[in-house]
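Give me the fold.
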Amino acid sequence: MRTISEWLDEYSESHQNPTNKAIHWVCVPAILFSIIGILAHFNAMLTALLIVLTLVFYARLDIVLAVAMAALLFVMAWLIILLPVGVGFYIGVFVVSWIGQFYGHKVEGKKPSFFKDLQFLLIGPVWCMNAYLAKILPKWKRRQLVAV
């Protein structure tokens, strides 16, 4: 199994352009939010199971990032419960966000990472979280990422 550093380094290779990075910072969380919203409208228990399995995947890579992602996923699920919108809203967010993603990769001039390995669909959100933590925690960039 690859380490979190290996995953993030490889993901970063196709995300160097500042415009593409900015698009990903918005669109990756929006896609995650929309997927949870779509799934929750059809089967809340299956959605909860998939979230738990995703967090297990993250915890095997880095426990601190997994806890941060758990907090984010909790907030997203809570918002989905509170928002009085239908599944069409989440589908719209999903479609618009993917259009943004592909535009970002056109600007970058590189294919999305998940074309190489579907697991990168799970790495995108944790890549964004890692970058966010690096912005708010001064020592985060120097921190050694630790697998569990």
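The CA atoms of residues 27 and 97 lie 5 Å apart.
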